[in-house]
């Protein structure tokens, strides 16, 4: 299995700070790189993180607030400059197509034909392994889920009981039957791994659906609970609410990010304390250039 990990390029919300760049997250997933919400400065953060333009296969924008998209011009121009050969799929809310075009052609540069545009609309949209769901924010915003197809886990004792060994095991997996023995008799279902990316939103059904059972959830925690009214007004989550989502959805590994500039590293224990009021699983408080592996498969 190829390496699956999250490379965190930026963790601030509307205003970057001395220690936190605007948003930017690269999910490495089986040879594909999903770049979510490249905010201002993402191209430089990629250099610091050892991420090249060739590592990007998808550019996924949740919405068109600046901290989630102002890095697009630099990233695309770098893709062109470095002569990336593979297709790069750009996924973004269809309602923001005018903003996309302005970002896409923000300056004079030698253009590239590898960018494939995939605007999404409606409540549910899918593009290959990527699913988008409409969230609750003052502007149209989408969350994303990357899903591996389900598979099966072979049971050695069942294979041995039926005398299936060597090349016959591969044949059973490919065809579903060997000498009258079906795959179902020698295996059990194995759910595919999944990761979800949820940025600016209030609590809504789509948040829980995107997070349902995922191995890795990257989610905004813009405010602490003392700013609950402000969070609701501006369409954001608190750390407690992010933990609530993780607990109810059965998330394995939780990554909190998109912190308001009003908070510093000294506030991290308070964020963790709030999350622990609702979620007792594994938690990472994101910092720029941190790497978070996707948890190993459940057996």
Short overview:
The protein has helices at residues 42-49, 72-81, 97-104, 156-161, 167-175, 205-211, 228-234, 239-249, 268-276, and strands at 4-10, 24-29, 32-36, 58-60, 88-93, 115-120, 124-127, 130-134, 142-147, 151-154, 177-178, 181-182, 187-190, 194-198, 216-220, 253-257, 282-285, 291-293.
CATH class of the largest domain, named Alpha Beta
Estimate the mean pLDDT confidence.
Answer: 95
Largest sheet: 7 strands, mixed
CATH homologous superfamily title of the largest domain: Ribonuclease Z/Hydroxyacylglutathione hydrolase-like
Number of helices: 9
Q: Order the strands across the largest sheet as they lie in space.
A: 6-5-4-3-2-1-18
Question: In terms of topology, how is this protein built?
Answer:
Elements: E1 4-10, E2 24-29, E3 32-36, H1 42-49, E4 58-60, H2 72-81, E5 88-93, H3 97-104, E6 115-120, E7 124-127, E8 130-134, E9 142-147, E10 151-154, H4 156-161, H5 167-175, E11 177-178, E12 181-182, E13 187-190, E14 194-198, H6 205-211, E15 216-220, H7 228-234, H8 239-249, E16 253-257, H9 268-276, E17 282-285, E18 291-293
Parallel strand pairs: 3-4, 4-5, 5-6, 14-15, 15-16, 16-17
Antiparallel strand pairs: 1-2, 1-18, 2-3, 7-8, 8-9, 9-14, 10-13, 11-12
Enzyme class: hydrolase
GO molecular function: 3'-tRNA processing endoribonuclease activity
Keywords: Endonuclease, Hydrolase, Metal-binding, Nuclease, tRNA processing, Zinc
Walk me through the structure:
InterPro entries: Metallo-B-lactamas, RibonucZ/Hydroxyglut_hydro, RNase_Z/BN. Zinc phosphodiesterase, which displays some tRNA 3'-processing endonuclease activity. Probably involved in tRNA maturation, by removing a 3'-trailer from precursor tRNA. The protein is an alpha/beta fold and about 300 residues long. It has 2 domains: about 5-150 and about 190-295, Metallo-beta-lactamase, Chain A (4-Layer Sandwich); about 150-190, no CATH class. About 25% of the residues lie in helices and about 25% in strands. A 7-stranded mixed beta sheet has the order 6-5-4-3-2-1-18. The protein has a 7-stranded mixed beta sheet with strand order 7-8-9-14-15-16-17, covered by helices on one side. α6 (about 205-210) crosses α8 and α8 (about 240-250) runs parallel beside α9. The longest helix has 11 residues, at about 240-250. The two termini are about 15 Å apart. The mean pLDDT is about 95.
């Amino acid at each position: 299995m190829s390496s699956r990990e999250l490379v965190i390029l930026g963790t601030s919300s509307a205003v970057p700070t001395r220690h936190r760049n605007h948003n930017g997250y690269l999910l490495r997933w089986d040879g594909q790189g999903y770049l979510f919400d490249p905010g201002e400065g993402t191209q430089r953060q990629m250099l610091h993180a050892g991420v090249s333009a060739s590592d990007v296969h998808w550019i996924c924008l949740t919405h068109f607030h600046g901290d989630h998209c102002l890095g697009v011009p630099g990233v695309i121009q770098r893709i062109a400059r470095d002569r990336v050969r593979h297709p790069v799929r750009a996924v973004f809310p269809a309602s923001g197509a005018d903003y996309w075009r302005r970002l896409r052609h923000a300056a004079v540069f030698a253009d590239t034909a590898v960018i494939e545009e995939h605007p999404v609309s409606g409540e549910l949209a899918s593009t290959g392994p990527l699913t988008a769901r409409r969230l609750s924010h003052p502007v149209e915003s989408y969350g994303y889920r990357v899903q591996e197809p389900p598979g099966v886990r072979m049971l050695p004792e069942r294979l041995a009981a039926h005398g299936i060994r060597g090349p016959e095991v591969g044949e059973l997996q490919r065809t579903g039957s060997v000498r009258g023995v079906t795959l179902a008799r020698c295996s059990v279902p194995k759910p595919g791994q999944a990761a979800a990316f949820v940025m600016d939103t209030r609590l809504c059904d789509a948040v829980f659906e995107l997070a349902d059972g995922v191995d890795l959830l990257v989610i905004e925690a813009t405010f602490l609970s003392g700013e609950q009214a402000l969070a609701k007004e501006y369409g954001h989550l608190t750390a407690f609410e992010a933990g609530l989502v993780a607990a109810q959805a059965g998330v394995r590994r939780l990554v909190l990010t998109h912190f308001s500039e009003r908070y510093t590293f000294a506030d991290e224990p308070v964020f963790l304390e709030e999350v622990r009021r609702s979620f007792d699983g594994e938690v990472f408080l994101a910092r720029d250039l941190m790497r978070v592996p996707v948890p190993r498969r459940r057996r």
